[in-house]
Amino acid sequence: MKTFTFIIFCFFVTTFSFSEVSQNEKDALLALYKSTNGEKWNNTWNLNEPIENWYGVTVIDYKVVELNLHFNNLQGTLPQEIGNLENLRKINLGFNQLEGQLPSTLGNLKSLISLELFMNKFDGKIPLEIGNLTSLRVIKLYSNSLTGEIPTSIGNLINLKELMLGSNFLTGSIPLEFKDLSRLEILSLIDNKLVGEIPSEIGQLSNLKELVLASNELTGSVPYQVTSLSHLSTFMVSDNNFDREYVSVIDGEGKMPTMLLEFNSETVITDND
C-alpha cells in the first residue's frame, strides 16, 4: 500500500512539474513587460495570475506560442530575452512606440512563422540572424527607422510569403538572394534609399502578386523578366531614377504583367491615383 501511495504521489508531482510554462519563458515575458513599461500598457498583465490569462499571450501545451500586443502602448526596447520564447510561432507588436535595435536573439525563434513589428521606432540594422528563421512566412517591419543594407540571409527564408520593409531608411541594393524566395507573394520595399537596378532574378518569383519598389533611388530599367510574373496584380515603381517612367497598377486584373513595358511613357499613373 505504501508503494502504491508513493507511486501516486510521484505521478502528481511529475504532472505538476510539467503543467506550467517554463521559468525561462516566464522570465522572457517579464523582461518584455519591464523593458516596455508594462504598467502603462493599455491592457496590462496581472503578474499574479497564470500566464495563460495574460493579455495577448497564447499558451498551448504549457508553451508560449503567440504574443499579440499590437496597439497596446508598449514604450521602450525589445529585450534580448525575447529570444528565449523558443516555442513562439507568431509575434505582433505593431502600432506601438518601441525603439532601439532589433535584438539578434530574434534569430533563436526557430518556430516563428510570423514576425510583425511594424509602425514602431526601431532603428539600426536588421539582424543577420533573421535568416535563421526558416519557418517564417510573414515579415512586417515597415514604418520604422531601420538603416543599413537588407541582409542577404533573408534569401534563406524559403517559406516566406510576405516581405514588407517599406518606409525605413534602408540602403544598398535589392539582394540577388531574393531569387530563392520561391513562395513569395508580396515584396514591398517602398520608401527607402535603395540604389542600383532591379535584379532580373525577380522574374523567377513566379508566385509574386505585389511588387512595390516605389520611392527609392533605383536606376536602369525594369527588367523584362517581370513580364513573366503571371500572378502580379500590384506593381509600383514610380519615384525612382529609372531611365523612363512606368505605370503603377494597383489590384490590376488580366494581362497586367505583359503590358508593363509596352505603354506610352507619357501616360503615367502615379501611386496616388
In a nutshell, what does this entry contain?
The chain has 273 residues and is an alpha/beta fold.
Round the mean pLDDT to the nearest integer and report it: 89
Structural class: alpha/beta
User: Regions with pLDDT < 50 over 5+ consecutive residues?
Assistant: 4-18, 263-273
H/I helix tally = 3
What is the general shape? elongated
- Terminus-to-terminus distance: 82 Å
Order of helices and strands: HHEEEEEEEEEEEEEEEEEH
Tell me the Rg in angstroms.
23 Å
Strand content: 15-25%
Helix proportion range = 10-25%
What topology emerges from the helices and strands here?
Elements: H1 2-17, H2 23-35, E1 57-60, E2 63-68, E3 75-77, E4 90-92, E5 97-101, E6 114-116, E7 121-125, E8 138-140, E9 145-149, E10 162-164, E11 169-171, E12 186-188, E13 195-196, E14 210-212, E15 217-220, E16 234-236, E17 241-242, H3 256-259
Parallel strand pairs: 2-4, 3-5, 4-6, 5-7, 6-8, 7-9, 8-10, 9-11, 10-12, 12-14, 13-15, 14-16, 15-17
Antiparallel strand pairs: 1-2
Task: Considering the chains and any ligands shown, give keywords for the structure.
273 residues; alpha/beta; five-stranded parallel β-sheet; 3 helices; disordered C terminus
What can you see in these coordinates?
With 273 residues, the protein is of the alpha/beta class. Helix content is 12%, strand content 22%. The protein contains three helices and 17 strands. The chain has a nine-stranded mixed beta sheet with strand order 1-2-4-6-8-10-12-14-16, with no helix packed on it. It has a five-stranded parallel beta sheet with strand order 3-5-7-9-11, with no helix packed on it. Strand 1 and strand 2 form a beta hairpin. The longest helix is centred in the first third of the chain and has 16 residues. The radius of gyration is 23 Å and the shape is elongated. It starts with a helix and ends in a 14-residue tail after the last helix. The C terminus is likely disordered.
